[in-house]
Specification:
Layout lengths: L2 E5 L4 E6 L4 E6 L6 E7 L2 E5 L2 H8 L9 E3 L5 E8 L13 H8 L9 H10 L12 E3 L22 E7 L3 E7 L15 E6 L3
Antiparallel strand pairs: 1-11, 2-10, 3-9, 3-11, 4-5, 4-8, 4-10, 6-7, 7-9
């Protein structure tokens, strides 16, 4: 059985994806960042670890074949297909605090990914201490030779997909990024689609 949900611009979404099932993210309109966290569905103390994942694959960017590792260095999900080519692991989730620091105090009231993660995570008993460094699907964050990061126009296009296979029962949290102050969403957040497919 396949279930598909359209996540509106700026909104949050969560679901349990069972072992062997797939999760396909579709960038419906192009140039939309999707912030993403994943936990063991039966023990949320076991959760995505950016350091373990980056170290194991030897790259800051995710693409087909990348394995999302937990803080116990065990696989949570594997990227099985990718129509974009690379996705960010270091840009983090936007917050009221980071918006204010980067773009000025007038942005304080703007909705942010951390707000989405906290609200959606609360439905599953998760709080601020459970938020870790996240993945940003579709977001283009090049690393310059001097180590500085940029947030620039995305590499995606309307309809491009990323598919992951769950290696165990996982809880996925998504923030369809509401950021309007940098190019990660083309300055105009848009809807994305989440499709959970049956185990193969």
């Amino acid at each position: 059985m396949t279930t598909t949900t359209v996540v509106p611009a700026r909104a949050a979404w969560s679901a349990v994806v069972r072992a062997g099932e797939t999760l396909t993210l579709t960038d419906l309109h192009g140039n939309q960042a999707v912030d993403f966290l994943v936990y063991d569905a039966h023990d949320t103390a076991v959760r995505y670890s950016a350091p373990d994942t980056v170290h194991a694959q030897g790259s800051l960017f995710l693409t087909a074949g990348s394995v999302l590792l937990s803080n116990e260095h065990t696989p949570l999900m594997t990227v099985t297909a990718d129509e974009v080519g690379r996705h960010d692991t270091v840009g983090g989730a936007c917050s009221k605090e980071s918006n204010t620091l980067r773009y000025g105090h007038h942005t304080w009231s703007q909705h942010a990914c951390v707000d989405n993660f906290l609200a959606e995570g609360a439905k599953h008993g998760l709080g601020k201490r459970d938020l870790v460094s996240n993945i940003n699907w579709y977001m283009n964050v090049p690393v310059e030779p001097d180590g500085t990061l940029g947030i620039v126009d995305g590499l995606s296009a309307p309809g491009r997909k990323v598919t992951l296979r769950a290696e165990r029962d996982v809880l996925v949290l998504v923030s369809n990024c509401p950021q309007t102050n940098n190019p990660c969403n083309g300055f105009e957040p848009t809807a994305v689609e989440m499709t959970i497919g049956a185990a193969g």
